[in-house]
Amino acid sequence: MTLKETKNRCTWADSAPDFPHYHDTEWGFPVAEDQRLFEKLCLETFQSGLSWRTILAKRDSFREAFQHFDIQKVAQFEEKDIADLLENKNIVRNKRKILAVINNAQKALPLIEQEGSLAAFLWGYEPDEATQPPPPETQTTCPESIALAKELKKRGWQFVGPTTIYAFMQSMGMVNDHAEDCFMREEIDQARQEFKRPSRANPSK
Question: What is the CATH T-level fold of the domain 15-126+137-194, as seen in this structure?
């Protein structure tokens, strides 16, 4: 039997050859590293209007092109760097999105200085587990994703709408949106229980 035949996954996870591994090893596990969180926000920016399959297939090329999404380095990208990115056939060559990623890196720096880390700020918007969560795979936004998107836009971030932010929350483990019968749901619940939430140095929420 194949792995697909022996395990129940979220429906989307079997829709592309590279999705099962991503689903089983990454999607929904809580993340506290600034660089990984920033990378996912950037990739969500590039996904806007496209499929995640397209972005996932190009992820290694995105990492190489954007200095592995080192926030300090991306914030310093100049005209030559932008020109090089627009010539890079291995990534999505959308100038507005490229400029948004650079802009967001620049806006992330004062946020990190204020809050202690990007992770601490973002996890401050984790949906409240005390409330009754909606059934998995039934919504594309939540009050917290709407509030976080609003705050990021207020701080000058771009391409960070509520739907984009909710997709980010799903993938980075801020909510467990694995289907009820998905074999990963229980493991993600356990990972979230054991996860140490980063604390904010100067909460402004």
Answer: Endonuclease III; domain 1 (1.10.340)
